[in-house]
Amino acid sequence: MFDAFTKLGKWLFIAIWLTIVIAVFFGESITKFVLHEMPFMGTTFTKAAWEQAGQCSGKACALDMSCPRGGMFRDLQRHHLVAGTRRTMVEQMLGKGKKGSGGRCALYPLGMCSGFGIDMDYLHICYGHDDRIASVSHHQN
User: Fold this and answer.
1) 105 pairs with which residues across the strands?
2) Which of 10, 11, 125, 127 is deepest in the core (most CB within 10 A)?
3) Cβ–Cβ < 8 Å for 94, 81
4) pTM for the complete prediction?
5) pLDDT of residue 36
6) Is the Cβ–Cβ distance between 53 and 95 less than 8 Å?
């Protein structure tokens, strides 16, 4: 029976040691990925889902309580909001966004997605002088 505790103790020591090593060397990147990247992937963009997520019933909006649009960000960024896309096409897909910095950018609320879900995240689209997409990102406000 003492041998069983010795083996268990050895494996427990190895598990704790590996956990510490992983936390020290990879903890920051794992935390950043889980809190700031994962919420923005995994859902395919559809216009209907985007519009439904923006609707409010009474005083409560889904955007205020969760992250209904956040998972669509990566799909939008990679497949729909590519550099050079016209502003009119974007507005047909997403609607008109709030004016951002300098009037050349538009902000679209994604919901309370990153971190601990207490701050609003936004899709941030900036256009060039030709009214075509120059950059797409998300930020927390």
Assistant:
1) 126
2) 125
3) no
4) 0.70
5) 64
6) no
